[in-house]
Known about the structure:
Blueprint: H1 16-29, H2 36-77, E1 80-82, E2 87-89, H3 96-116, H4 119-122, H5 130-141, H6 146-169, E3 179-182, E4 185-188, E5 193-196, E6 199-202, E7 208-209, H7 210-236, E8 242-246, E9 260-264
Antiparallel strand pairs: 1-2, 3-6, 4-5, 6-7, 8-9
Helix pairs in contact: 1-2, 1-7, 2-3, 2-7, 3-6, 3-7, 5-6, 6-7
Amino acid sequence: MLIRIQKLSNYGTSSPAVARTSVQGCVILGFFAITEAQREEAKIVLHELQRQLVRCVEIRDQIAETVDSAHKELKTKGFNFQSNGRAVTLPSVIDLQSKAESFLQSAKLAIRETAHLVKPFYGEKLDHKFQKFAAWAEGQFGPNDTFTQVVKGWEPWVKRVVIMRNAVDHPEDKPIGKLITENFRFFGTNDAPVLIDPIWCLSGEPESPILAAMDGIIAGIIELGEEILAGLFYKLKHNLPLMIYEIAVEERDPSCPIRLRVGFEETPNA
């Protein structure tokens, strides 16, 4: 029998998109009072969440590499003016619009997977429509329940990401109806030139740097997945005095920077 060895991803446990989804999540699942079948089903969801997030990180890094390279070249060579200063050669992110659209598609799918974490335990298949997720949580646990409040708190943020993706799937000639991207641009004068990095926005809205926006979406989805899993932990953990602790940023292992760990509840001093 031939053993097949393949590298399936450029991103390992040093990436938060890996460490803080499937690696961290599978450990936390070990403390759930559930069947092994439920645990395995939840692990599949975590792996799919990781896969979609890694795709987002990959697209973001491709753009960042071009941006970094452009600024390094500009620092050493300056702007390339032509035709007696009437034209200038600018760098570009190849297929910027397609990259932005693909990023948003994977972001939406990753958000969907965070909601899918509920299904192995409660049988309810939810998705990126967090208003329905919030309604389900309220019906299941009550309006004042911590888990319900977490889902409701994330709903506006999730809706914003989904609106951006929907502007790709169903573009319309109206405010926030289309996704707009702009590649590198020239600003200023020939004597004081400035290179403007790629941006995106929805039609009719202020533009924003695309890399910073992508960083925010990636970080948000990672935290969203953690909060949903942590909420489920408190619903389904073994009948032991356990709780989830946050590891301080400076104490996280760079080779696997997980943020959450399970430990025993601290007992107040007598």
